[in-house]
Design brief:
Blueprint: E1 3-9, E2 13-20, E3 25-32, E4 44-45, H1 47-65, E5 72-79, E6 85-87, E7 97-98, H2 106-116, H3 118-125, H4 134-144, H5 146-150, E8 154-156, H6 158-167, E9 171-173, H7 174-177, E10 183-184, E11 189-190, H8 192-197, E12 207-209, E13 214-217, H9 220-226, E14 233-235, E15 238-239, H10 240-247, E16 254-260, E17 264-270, E18 282-285, E19 292-298, H11 302-312, H12 314-323, H13 327-337, E20 346-348, E21 366-368, H14 376-400, E22 405-411, H15 418-428, E23 432-434, H16 440-452, H17 459-466, E24 472-473, H18 480-497
Parallel strand pairs: 1-5, 5-15, 9-12, 16-22, 22-23
Antiparallel strand pairs: 1-2, 2-3, 4-7, 6-8, 10-11, 13-14, 16-17, 17-19, 18-19, 20-21, 23-24
Helix pairs in contact: 1-6, 2-3, 2-4, 10-16, 11-12, 11-14, 13-14, 14-15
Length: 500
């Protein structure tokens, strides 16, 4: 039997997953690490923490699976997108990585828009200037940490730093690179004109490949640390959203995915680049060769429930620990006791600003409509509903872009809650297909690795063989009018609170 390894370098931790060639999970390991917030709206991580998590995870799955390292035929890399990793000439990390949810770069975005122009930026990169993307972070370092900027030898994304540590190769691939805002998504290569106008040396960027291409091989040093076989192929891989989409089988137009992780995403594959003139959703290269995708992003999805749990639910955490149950199961059961509409509370999930549909790094979250009748259950339910409304904003824009919607698949940590799944189906007024994709991004890049080393003929062929939808969640048509009214209130709130 041949095996494939998938690494997913996430925000809260790195998941390492070993699969057989039929897509069955053999063994997984997850190692967590810290997120640093030096100031409000800033978010950083130490790339060495990612590498330690990968080394430990790889060793674990090999040792505990009884699979011979020589039977692992390929490795795929996925990771949090948009992170800025800076290396000097000795290939040492210059500073902590500024990661995807950091919001410090508003001035740099204004500068990019002034120099390039909003419409031209969207035409070249698929997106307007965005605080979360890598380019604005690079410009921020130039403006605020000139000594660090002068030391830069290479700029890498989080997963591509792990590639370097495994293979000693500087490389990236189109899906993650198009989230840096330096790639021309039409040609699927670096934009010479954009880099020139912003005075950025192209040589600091890694070579860019299609996502299924073998980009390096495991070095002797990395093999000793991880117990991998020397020269094991490492493919391009994908940014976490494109990788998760492949893990959900979102490789053809008409099948949409909704993922409720730390952030929330509505993702659709397209056969040609599609653009929203206002740039409210991202248009990026897909990890499937010659395909693209559009993606609406809610910054604070599962993040909202996690924040609420940490801030207001000490008793629930204590009760769940005593009972040996998951605190999120306890909270979503409480949400189910509240009525649709949360007895008047409307939650705006803008804890880290917002991307879709507002592109506003400064807007703050809110609970609106609170009265004496409200209790803890209402607040929890309002979070599940507010995130669902934000995801519906994403879906509405994608439908307006004439993207077909034949099926919606749902996955991610939040989607493991039957209560949240039902709320989302009722808000969307679409039936949802659940996909068992707890290893989603890791499985997605394992599939890419399998294509790269010749186990599968194509990504589409592999997905049709491996990815199967599970149960259906049917929308309750009786709630259409209720949620339509609350959705109108939700949409009316942003203009009223954006300047607070």
């Amino acid at each position: 039997m041949r095996y494939l390894l998938g690494l997913d370098i996430g925000t809260s931790g790195t998941k390492t997953a070993l699969f057989d060639e039929e897509g069955n999970t053999i063994k997984t390991a997850t190692y967590a690490y810290e997120l640093f917030q030096p100031q409000v709206g800033w978010a950083e991580q130490n790339p060495e923490d990612w590498w330690k998590a990968c080394v430990n995870g790889i060793k674990d799955v090999i040792e505990k699976s009884n699979v011979q390292a020589s039977d692992i035929k390929g490795i795929g890399l996925s990771g949090q997108m948009h992170g800025l990793v800076l290396l000097d000439k000795k290939c040492k990390v210059i500073r902590n990585s500024i990661i995807w949810c950091d919001q410090r770069t508003e001035k740099e975005c204004d500068y990019m828009t002034k120099v390039i122009g909003k419409e031209r930026l969207i035409k070249i990169t698929g997106n307007p200037a965005l605080t979360g993307f890598t380019l604005s972070k690079l410009l921020w370092v130039r403006n605020n940490e000139l000594n660090n900027y002068k030391k830069i030898y290479k700029v890498l994304l989080p997963k591509d730093y792990i590639r370097f540590k495994l293979t000693n190769t500087f490389a990236t691939e189109v899906s993650d690179a198009s989230g840096m805002q330096m790639l021309d998504i039409n040609t699927r290569n670096w934009s010479e004109e954009l880099l020139k106008e912003l005075n950025i040396d192209k040589n600091i960027l890694a070579d860019v490949y299609e996502s299924v291409v073998v980009s390096g091989h495991v070095t002797e040093e990395a093999a000793k640390l991880t117990k991998l076989e020397i020269n094991t192929p490492v493919v391009g891989g994908a940014g976490d959203q494109a990788a998760g989409a492949i893990g959900n089988g979102i490789v053809n137009e008409g099948i949409i995915s909704t993922i409720i992780g730390s952030s929330g995403v509505v993702f659709a594959a397209t056969d040609t680049p599609r653009f929203d003139k206002e740039g409210r959703v991202h248009t990026l290269c897909h990890a499937v060769p010659n395909k693209w995708h559009v993606m609406g992003v809610t910054q604070g999805a599962g993040l909202s429930l996690n924040w609420f749990k940490r801030t207001f639910c000490a008793k629930d955490v204590e009760d769940s620990e005593k009972a040996g149950t998951d605190v999120y199961d306890l909270l979503t059961k409480k949400a189910a006791k509240s009525k649709p509409g949360s007895n008047g509370i409307v939650y705006l999930p803008y804890l880290m600003g917002e991307r879709t549909p507002h592109i506003d790094p400064n807007v703050k979250g809110a609970f609106l409509g609170v009265s004496l009748i409200n209790n803890h259950d209402d607040f929890v339910r309002s979070i599940l509903e507010g995130v669902s409304f934000s995801l519906k904003n994403c879906l509405d824009i994608i439908e307006d872009m004439n993207v077909k919607v034949n099926e919606i698949r749902i996955s991610g940590g939040g989607a493991e809650s039957s209560v949240w799944r039902q709320i989302l189906a009722d808000v969307f007024q679409y039936s949802l297909t659940t996909v068992k994709a707890s290893e989603g991004p890791a499985l997605g890049v394992a599939i890419l690795a399998g294509v790269g080393v010749g186990i599968y003929d194509s990504v589409e062929e592999a997905c049709s063989k491996i990815i199967k939808g599970n149960s259906m969640v049917y929308s309750n048509t009786d709630l259409k009018e209720v949620y339509s009214k609350v959705y109108d209130v939700y949409n009316s709130a942003y203009p009223k609170i954006k300047n607070i």
